[in-house]
Every structure is written in structure tokens, then in C-alpha cells.
Amino acid sequence: MKHIVLLAAVVVFMSLTIQAQNPPTAPKRVIIKGTVINPQSRLMSISIFANPLTNPFAYTDTLDDNNTFRIAFDLGIPIPVQLLHGRGLSVPMYLEPGDSIVVTANGQNYAGDMKFEGTGVNHQLFLRDFDRTFAMRGITYNNPDKVRLLDFDAYRKFTDSLRTAQTDFVTAYAQKAPLTETFKAYAQILIDYPWATALLNFPNDHARYSGLQTIQIPPNYSNFLEQMKFLNDDAILIPAYVQFIDAFFNSAFNQQVISTTPNYNYDNLYTDQYDFAKKILKGKSVYYTMARAFAEGCNNGRIENILTKYPDFVNTNPYPEYKEVVDYMYNANKYLAAGNPAPAFTLESIEGKKVSLSDFKGKVVYLDFWATWCGPCKQQLPHSKVLKEQFAGKDVVFMYVSTDKDRTQWENYVKKEALPGVQLIATGPDAQRIGEVYQVRGIPKYFIIDRNGNIANSKPRRPSEQPVVAQQIDEALSIR
Q1: For 317-370, what is each residue's pLDDT tens digit?
Q2: Pairing of strands 422-425, 28-37
Q3: Which of 87, 307, 341, 369 is least surrounded by Cβ atoms within 10 Å, i.e. has the fewest?
């Protein structure tokens, strides 16, 4: 069995709304142990939401021959966690220093049959019963029928009613089973912020479910925001609060920037979001949102644009956990910004020959990462044919790098569809290497490389996005 120590330096980040009244104490050992009937795997994990910009980290134990497990670590402050088992099986828990909890679980009905004993049991039973009362019965804010069928007034009444029912649930539960003040504050976060997030998302969700292109938002619809605490820095690591901040920011940005800017240039999306965060948010939330815009800009936008915000972030951000993420994204992506040499590679072509990117120096290369199993990739291929014809006779090469694992399937598809251009495949170590150097985290992914072998555009438009994509290729042709 594994005994895991959660170091105080790591624990400091996790705080709740009443931390000022209950500051961290000397760490105490927390133990979660138990038995899993009908296990779906041999692993049990405690997953902790450490940083809203990164994936949760987990402490894991392996079930023994009797299907029992034991996870232990030192804890200085209360934290919400997830108890994970198998593929996708998850139950929320709430741990306080000194808790010792015994779990009995059934892998075939993980959440439904979960039982708890020991110290701190009331908090676990509350979360279990809260989930059974609402989410497991489909009583949620994002119920598709409610979102699609209700108008603004009716949906507001529905959400207010559900919020009241959940608040009453907390009050009634606390009368029969003692709950700590810290946990009650956490429970209120689980009630208030999903309510506000649902109301923020309703206009777009209702339009999407109803097939509407536009929707008229009633005056004073957003008055519910007056009830919310926006500078709740102590809750920044609770997912419900982070989702609220994201929804509030995205709604405000869409209404105040994109909707008010004719022919908005999405090349500037992430730099604009970075700047807008300073105008509409305060406290720790602004730096979280700036860091999120920077990271998403590196992953999904024009890298050369978002990197211009790096000096500002480094000079103004006071939070080391956000700086760590931004530093990582900067160093991992800076060499892919326009003006830098495109990473070299040599791959096998559809004809079975070795082809190098350097073979096409002196020409502009429109580089397309794709695969035959990727629906969005294949949707772009007819448009890519048209785009290639548009640049016939010019110094432009259309290069397609497939990430398919099945070479035969790739060959058959290319031949069947008569795909033009330079058709290459990256398999095995080649796929891993080119995926790493070009930061291919998802496909389709495109680059434009100039005549000198340098990146001209790290996030060109897709072939279907005319006339902008053609203009971007023309811009690369003008580079000498």
C-alpha cells in the first residue's frame, strides 16, 4: 500500500471562502481506505484540483488480493477531491485534516452504492445524498428540455426554484448531521455558482438547442450577477467557481468585443481576451484569465500574436502557479512563432519515397496535419483541392501529413479521393517526433512556411475560410 505525503508547499493553494477565519493548521494525516466489490480496474485514486490551468493530480493505490486499498497523506487545510476508479467512475469527497474514512464501493454501481464510515463521514454522505437528490434524478440546470423549451422568465424561475431547493437541502441536512462551517461555505459555492453559470450560458444554449441564429436578451436579464461575489479569490480552485468566471468572462467578451466589432478578426482573439480580462476582472481571477488566454493562444491561436503578451504577464502577475504555466507554454511554443525556422522533418510519401520539408525551400508550403479518421479534417479536403487550384502555377506547395496508424487505410483513402499535393504519413517514432516539434495536440492543424523555410503563419485559416486563407498564402509569397 502507498503512503503519500502532500507537502505543505503544495497544499497552500487549496483554500475556501472562510480560510481567513480558519487559517491552515499543522498538517494532519488523512486516510482513505476501503473495499471495492466488483472492481472495474485495480486502481483507486484521489484526484485533487490543484490549478485551474492544469489537469488535476492524483494519488493512487492498487487494489490488493482482497480488493482493498489505502491512500494516506498529510493535509493542512480542507480540500474537495474526487475518488476515482476504473474508466470514468468518480465520486466527490471533501477532506479535512485528520479525516479517516472507510469506503465501501461497488464497481458496477459506483456512485449509487457508495458507503462511508469514520471521521468526516457527514461531509461525504452529504455529497452523496446531494448528488442522489438532484443530479442522479436529472434535476440539473442544464436539462436539455428546460434549456430548449423555456423562455427567459420561465428559465429564471426554474433556476431560482432549484437553487432554493438545494439551499433548503443544506439547511435540513445540517440539522440532522453536523457539518463544519468550512464545509457549509463550500456547499454554498456548489449551489450559488452553478446557478449563476447556468443563467450566463442560457442565451447561447437556448439559441443553439432551438436552432436560432440570434436571440434577444431581455433588459435587466443580468441583474442576477448583483448577487454574486466576483472577487472570491479563496474559491479560485473550486471547479464550480472557475466555471462561473469562465462563463462570465466569455459572455462579456462576446457581447462587448466580438458583437460590437464588424468583421471581427479572430487572429486577435486571444490577445484581445488577454487585454479584456484586465478591464472586466479583478483580483486573482484576472491573472487566471490572462494566463488562460495565453495558454489557449499558444494551443489554438497565432503563436506570434499571443507571445507579445509574455513580458507584460511576467512583470505584473504575482502568482507563481500561473507563471509556471505561462513560462512552460512560452518556452514550448516560441520556436513556432512566425519568423522562426520551421522544424525539419523527413517522412515517407504515398509513392514510398523519403521526402523532406527542405526539399521545397524556395516555395511557400501550406502544411496540413490530418488523418482519415478525423471528420473535420476530411470536411476540409474538398476546399483544399479548390485552394490548390487557385494557386496553380505559383510557388506554393500543399503538403499533407497524415497521422494515421494504418498505412493501408491511408493509402486507399488518398487514392480513392484522388487527393492532390504532397501526401506524407508519420507513423511510429516519426509521428511522435513531428507531433512534439509542431505541438500537434489536435487535428486538423495548419502552418504556412515561407520560401526561406521559416514559419510565416502559425495558425492560418482552414481551406474553407476564403478569402482570408488565400490572402494569408499571398502574404507568405510576398516574403523574400
Answers
A1: 999 999 999 999 999 999 999 999 999 999 999 999 999 999 999 999 999 999
A2: unpaired
A3: 87
